[in-house]
Amino acid sequence: MNTPVKGKKICLRGFGQQQETEAKARLVKHGFELAPSISCADAMVVGPEDASLALEAARKARLPVTPWCEFISALENAVAPVPAVGLPRRAAIEIKSGSVRILDQELCRSDVASPLVPAEEWFRHLCLDGCFLQNARAVAMGVRNGLPVMLEGETCASKTISIRWVAHLIGHPVLRINLNGQSDTSELVGRYVPGGARQDPGPNTVLVSGKRRSGEQDTRSAPIRANCPDLWSKWNPSSAAGPSATPSWRFQEGCIPTAMRHGWWVLLDEVNLAEPQVLERLNPVIEQPPSLALTEGDGTVFGPGGTVPVARGFHLFGTMNPAEYAGRSVLSPAFRDRWSVWQHADVPGEAEFAAMLNCLVFGEQPEFAFEGVLYYSPPTKPVHPELAAIDGIREVLPRLALFHASLCQASGMGGAAPSLGRTRRERYVFTRRTLLNCLKLLGRARVENPDAPAGAQIRQVIEDAYMRRIGDRTDRNAAVALLRAAGLSER
Question: What's the rounded Cα separation, in Å, for the pair 4 and 80?
């Protein structure tokens, strides 16, 4: 370990209450500052107790970590401080008239006017931390190189929003489809639908009637005519004129061929909730270059050698939770292999939660070290500026982040063995959304009753946003212990 540099901010984790009190006293005595959270620390010192959550958070934040015994030994034997080596700083996002740079990936901007381009107000709460920026970079890299992108990770790991945010930055239409166990190929590729009176087919339409052009009877409509006379009459009003009248059907293209015609992005959310045979139908679309034959309809072929070229700008994205999540299907090797960019979205930790809270209240964006460069983002307009006036809020926010991160680990986020809800069939879930709701409740309370004691309001909000989710008495007691360990007392 390098000799500790006095004046630096140290974050302590893995200490008992008495041990932490003694460690803090020694650090202050030697001229160090105490950091309440990882996000504002220069280094982390861990004690003898379990600190796995903090260690993972420190790894993602590129924060130096040292065991207490080594740290204090080096401190007491120090001869001269070793200066920290600085990294070159660069803006994380650079927007020009015709391009956008996200970290080290640059994309061209579009001027398409479409309601499918994600609106700016969807991203007011966005915190540009390392987890999010790495997901956005993977999206940008896939777009830049024409490769399909899959983002895999826990719930609320910034998968979907990173794709839509990149689309917003470059002004590109994106069609989002939430897959589930009932999704079928007709939803994605196309299906026959009742078309009413006969009409000339459009470029995306195939009409199927009771009479073939050759005059041969098409028996596909017979079951409808025999078993559903009301629907038959509704779909084919002319049937009242006599028995020779027949219904008209048209082939309606699904979202995939429509997006291929117009050059839209397609975002397939919760990919592994769909049945494997449905996903396999998309294999040619994920190929490079993409193609698709509408064998369900008139046989139109999209892509090289086909009748319809794939419009420039078409791109396929997917998001999925780990296969261990309930109800998820196991993807075939053929399907997985076609996703050329596969990004494992990191689970946010204490540092990311603290940075998010600072962004929501003060508009401050965190810095992020990546590939030897320290990336920064300019301040943004805070979502909850009314909370900045609370006395001591700078100390409350990192404690709330620590409590939230501890609950996430205790409930099994990030692959940890859950200590909360072990007798439940479904684990407790605490995500960034819980923090957003917590601040929303607190902001509303401050606006409606600004003269009320802020401490009581904070405790009530924690009760409403967190504690009411926990019904089991043992689990609730464990959550209360985490609340006290974070320096937040329960009402």
Answer: 9
Work out the end-to-end distance of the chain between its first and last CA atoms, rounded to an integer number of angstroms: 43
Per-residue pLDDT in tens (0 to 9) along the chain, 491 residues? 444 455 578 888 888 766 777 778 777 767 788 887 887 788 888 887 777 777 777 887 778 888 877 787 676 565 433 333 468 999 999 999 899 999 999 999 987 789 999 999 999 999 999 999 999 999 999 999 999 999 999 988 999 999 999 999 999 999 999 999 999 999 999 998 887 544 444 444 444 433 333 344 444 444 445 544 554 454 454 444 444 455 688 889 999 999 999 999 999 999 999 999 999 999 999 999 999 999 988 889 999 989 999 999 999 999 999 887 877 889 999 999 999 999 999 889 888 999 999 999 999 999 988 988 999 999 999 999 999 999 999 999 999 999 999 999 888 887 667 888 888 888 899 999 999 999 999 999 999 999 999 999 999 999 999 999 998 899 999 999 999 888 886 54
The radius of gyration computed from the CA coordinates of the chain, to the nearest angstrom, equals: 28
pTM comes to 0.77
Domain boundaries, the chain: 9-76, 104-184+255-344, 195-246, 382-485
Q: How far apart are CA 254 and CA 243, in angstroms?
A: 33
User: Is the sign of the CA dihedral 179, 180, 184, 187 positive or negative?
Assistant: negative
What amino acid is encoded at 367 in this protein?
E
State the amino acid at position 447 in one-letter form.
V
- The correct CATH number of 9-76 out of 3.40.1170.60, 3.30.930.10, 3.40.250.10, 3.40.50.10190 is 3.40.50.10190
Q: Which helix (H) or strand (E) holds 374?
A: strand 373-376
Q: Are 479 and 407 in contact (CB under 8 A)?
A: yes
